[in-house]
Amino acid sequence: MKNYIIKESNEYEVELIIDKLVDYNLSIVPQVQEQSFIMINRVVKNYEDKIIAGINSKMYCWNCLYIDSLWVDAEFRGEGIGMRLLDEVEKIAIKKGCTLIHLDTFDFQAKDFYIKQGYEVFGILDNCPEGHKRYYMKKNI
Question: How many CB atoms lie within 10 A of CB 22?
């Protein structure tokens, strides 16, 4: 690779690469939703205003929702908070035209929880991390 330099990206360059990839993708498959990306994020706070749970997700270009993270504080697990957060985000996404939700989770996280919520495994990555599995899941809505 003469005449080229590889270096660490700064924040501007990271965003530029993402924008360029999105531009290319949309040149092949035009977006169907009005905004390219719609963030659908929620938190749950207790009476002391402490965050005890939250979900971060992004609906992108083609009415697809990617759930990036769902977390419930260990003290509050088993109370249905995760299910309520997931349900809230799904309802919002449906109102915005969403037809597919996808996410990934590890074997030590919430695979069974998502299966109970109607998600199905469509891919497994073994030894990620070593000795564990990463599950790729989806739900058509």
Answer: 15
